[in-house]
Amino acid sequence: MAIDASALEPKIIARGKEFFQSIAGEAPSIFNKGWWTGKVMDWAMQNEDFKVQMFRFVDVLPYLTTSESLSRHIEEYFGDKDANIPDVLKWGAGKTGFGGGLVAMVLNKAIRSNIEGMARQFIIGEKASEAVKGIRQLRKDGFGFIIDLLGEAPLNEKECDEYYDGYMEILNAIQAECKKWDALDATGDLDWGTSPKVNVAVKPSAFFSQAKPVDLEGSVEGIYRRVEPIYRKIKEMGGFMCIDVEQLKYREMTIELYKRLRSAPEHRDYPHLGIVYQCYLKSTESDVAELLSWARKENLPISIRLVKGAYWDSETVLAKQNGWDIPVWTIKAESDMAHERISRMILQNHDICHFACASHNIRTISNVIETAKALNVPDSRYEFQVLYGMAEPVRKGLRNVAKRVRLYCPYGDLIPGMAYLVRRLLENTANESFLRQSFAEGAELERLLENPEATYKRELAAKKAPAGRKMGPAGYPVFTNEPGVDFTIPAARAGMKNALEKVRRDFGKTYPLIIGGKEVKTSDTLNSYNPANPSEIVGAVCQAGVKETQDALALARKAYLEWRDVEPLERAKVLFKAASIMRRDTYELSALQVLEVGKQWDQAYGDIGEAIDFLEYYGREMIRLGSPRRMGNAPGEMNQYFYQGKGVTAVIGPWNFPLAISAGMCAAAIVCGNAVVYKPSGLSSVVGYGLARIFKEAGLPDGVFSYLPGRGSVMGDALVEHPDVSVIAFTGSMEVGLRIQEKAAKVQPGQVQCKKVIAEMGGKNAIIIDDDADLDEAITGVLYSAFAFQGQKCSACSRVIVLDPIYDRFVSRLAEAAKSIKIGPSEDPSNAMGPVVDKAAQASIMKYVDLACSEGKVLVKRTDIPADGGCYVPLTIVENITKSMRIAQEEVFGPVLAIMRAKNIDEALDIANSTRFALTGAIYSRSPKHLEKARKEFRVGNLYLNKGSTGAMVERHAFGGFNMSGVGSKSGGPDYLLQFMDPRLVSENTIRRGFAPVEEGDDWVE
Ligand SMILES: Cc1cc2nc3c(=O)[nH]c(=O)nc-3n(C[C@H](O)[C@H](O)[C@H](O)COP(=O)(O)OP(=O)(O)OC[C@H]3O[C@@H](n4cnc5c(N)ncnc54)[C@H](O)[C@@H]3O)c2cc1C
Predict the structure, then answer these.
(1) Beta bridge partners of 155
(2) How many Å separate Cα 143 from the centre of its chain?
(3) Which of 621, 609, 473, 567 is nearest to 970 (CA)?
(4) What is the C-alpha to C-alpha distance for residues 416 and 414, in angstroms, rounded to an integer?
(5) Residue 711 has what pLDDT?
(6) Which of 127, 580, 718, 810 is at a distance of 20 to 30 A from 235, taking alpha carbons?
């Protein structure tokens, strides 16, 4: 049924005004300045700095279990911001109050209880009995309820089981009680005559710790396994279940879960199952239309709760960080408009879809009321929902106008409750919040009730046009990182799947050497195999001997003499072309890594992105460095500083980032005007061949790049010791790196240049877990840093140093999480850990597993790994490790993690710095002082605060260590290229017979 929009609009405004009148003089308790919460909110809205500190403090509070840590954090968070602190906090932070004393204790207690009180305002109870009591009261006041168990994103399957048990507990408690409840505004057993009294919300991600977009099927199955019995129980109680929607990464699996549950043969006849849609997502309108047509096709009544969405900030930041299109609307009125459009669509389909409008915005609510009226939607087909503890006047007004109001009631522990509280505080204090504008700022009624289309037009006109991408030298846009893969997009998953099939079709080919642009076949070949199934030969790769090495070096020397004089911009263009070829072939290049070295899909895709970044970044860096720089401005003299490539560069690549690191080292050398002889690792030579193919297609002159796989024992020394080699760029183990340096230091007959060695070597990287660390984040970060790609990264975490007070909690959750990780071939995206790279690595890691188990106490040793001949090793975590033990000192390059205990932050830093490596490190802490201390004293090349130790990105995290972790400057950083060039200076006397031309920059002539 169509609607006359012009007739509807005045009715919406009138309805809104009437609504406001009916609650005149009332304000939500959260803004009541007579109370502590209201004061804090008021401060937060006036002072952004205080808001950040306050909300961060609320977030960390549940971890501050001792009086000492509470005092310390109050001082660290608020101590120096005297002017803007509410009195209650200022007293607590007073100089004399710290370090003990009765006064401090009393004040600290007050602060804690005030904040906990604020959290309780949004939570109906911490225990089932309290929740039931609260519900009873709400119903007495005439409101329905939705119960939601707090606790998000469990990290392991045990926590999912506990969460499931938590639901069963509250359901049992409600079941025992609900029979006694009279129906709201009706006789019989249903509220308002049509709605189940019991209404339950579930968050899908909380029911399966391994859910991830790349594995849609596995995720839906995992969630279904636990949600379905809960639904059955709710059905048995005659209740309603709504599947909440969380971050975008869970959207697709949530919709799929809903459809499966709704259409399951045993549940088809039960209509009381709902799903949430978020209007801030640009995709929601079509998603809702699709669900409605699905419902019609299946002939299944459905129910939708429409919200604007609770994760706007994080979705926006995440998309920007990853270079993705922003999935949410960016002008607030666009979300409001979407809510109005989608509400209408749902109400127009009221015969098949029950509607729950969840909003505190009186314009949004008035629109729904009037649209429903205009469409003659029966009352029983729609209702209103608001959050417990918020917007009391709105719920009261709704109760008067619409009757059918339900309160969404979180219940459970205060720890997840604090995270929920922070979300609510952010929502209420956001500039765009309707509640803030209406009840804290007293905005004009006309503006509050304005048609969002008008607001949108005005804001769009006032909005500055997007700046577009900034331009750099030579007309190229400034460098930005390649977007990461977004497996929420089905085409990305299909891209990988198809590419894996394609790569597999090419298995078994023979790959020649490429020397001076020509393919050279050798009788010696080396099979590169799939580590998940060593009987599968990815390719047979020809192996260079000493002769081929000498041939390649001779041709490289010749090519260098011409290439070094090619304009830097022209050299950079080859890199840009190579980057665009990699972009075109990303899926295939990624799939090859999955099969040749056993990388997980996202890891492999990330490697290609990094390779592209190196090409784009170094190209731009060369343009920057390529113009001669005038030195000084003495009159009559022109001094120019410029660079030339050093000569022939031997690049010896690793297998763990087979394209990225190789492409980075080769590209840097090439763009600086050197010729490269590239020896890939024997374990990833088919990937290496891809690099040769790409440079050729990009138009690099023959001879500037030769592809020279070969056995180190046969041709390694011939390459490193050759007198024509000027630079050796190496990434690999410390042992090989040191040997290369030793060999390179010896001057060979005929050698005219000192060899430059750039070597990125190993690490024994540590992550410190402070006693106030956010364990959800710390455990996720440690697991990823230690076990992604089986721990085979030089940046991988192999030591975790945990502060005593948090030790037991951290270790037990980490161990459970490690037990939940799925291990199997990386080709199957449901597996989070795969095989190690080959049989030799497997044997070497197994020795370290034994060593770890003998030196420490085993916490986890996953023996449930595929026993099908693949190169698997047990994921191993041991504790009771001290700093002198071998497992705390030697690099393993595999999934073996040592846990060490520290009394305090000083001891933790001392342990962290106690190896000869200095590559990466990380600390999880919410203490500003400890973070500052780590910044200064955690002596590694790359330190990460509150994030994992791996995943460095070109430019943003220019990468490399010192001590035994390497020599040379950071790759992907501003000094890297300088290592491949010799600086030259030419000084010209420009005075002839007393006449000196005026040069740009001269200041001697007025
Ligand atoms: C009963 C109930 C259940 C809920 N369940 C869920 C759920 O399952 N999943 C979920 O995500 N949320 C859920 N929410 C939270 C809900 O998304 C927020 O409370 C809601 O977005 C606030 O909207 P409003 O209409 O009350 O307020 P308003 O102040 O009108 O709207 C605020 C909202 O506008 C959007 N917004 C803010 N700034 C911008 C901008 N610059 N550009 C575009 N949009 C912007 C955001 O979504 C923000 O939350 C639920 C809320 C209720 C009441």
Answers:
(1) none
(2) 39
(3) 621
(4) 6
(5) 97
(6) 127
Q: What is the mean pLDDT of residues 280-291?
A: 98
CA-wise closest residue to 917 among 938, 903, 948, 936: 938
Query: Is 359 close to ligand 1, i.e. is its CB under 6 Å away?
Result: yes
* Ligand 1 atom closest to 336 (CA): 30
pLDDT, one tens digit per residue, over 346-368 is: 999 999 999 999 999 999 999 99
Distance (Å, whole) CA 877 – CA 316: 36
Ligand 1 atom with minimal separation from the 435 CA: 29
Task: Yes or no: say if 735 and 887 are a contact pair by the CB < 8 Å rule.
Answer: no
Q: How far is the C-alpha of 882 from the C-alpha of 891, rounded, in Å?
A: 15
Tokens in use for 143? Answer: 């409101």
Q: Longest Cα pair distance anywhere in the chain, in angstroms?
A: 113
pLDDT value at position 38?
Answer: 82
CA–CA distance, 533 with 61 (Å, rounded to integer): 49
Cα 716 from Cα 907, distance rounded (Å)? 43
**pLDDT category of residue 36 using cuts at 50, 70 and 90:** confident
Q: Which two tokens stand for residue 369?
A: 């009321």
Contact, 802 vs 900, CB < 8 A? Answer: yes
> What is the pTM (predicted TM-score) of this model?
0.94
Of 199, 306, 307, 329, which is best to mutate to test ligand 1, by the most ligand atoms within 8 angstroms of its C-beta?
A: 307
In the structure, what pLDDT confidence band is assigned to residue 431 with cuts at 50, 70 and 90?
confident
Q: Of 817, 964, 787, 809, give the one whose Cα is nearest residue 901.
A: 809
Q: Across 263-352, where does the E strand assignment appear?
A: 273-278, 302-307
Task: For residue 162, count other CB atoms closer than 10 A to its CB.
Answer: 12
Catalytic residues, by residue number, are 760, 794
- To the nearest 10°, the Cα dihedral for 507, 512, 513, 518? -130
pLDDT category of residue 103 using cuts at 50, 70 and 90: low
DSSP-assigned states of every residue in 764-824: -EEEEE-TT--HHHHHHHHHHHHHGGGG-STT-EEEEEEEGGGHHHHHHHHHHHHHH--BS
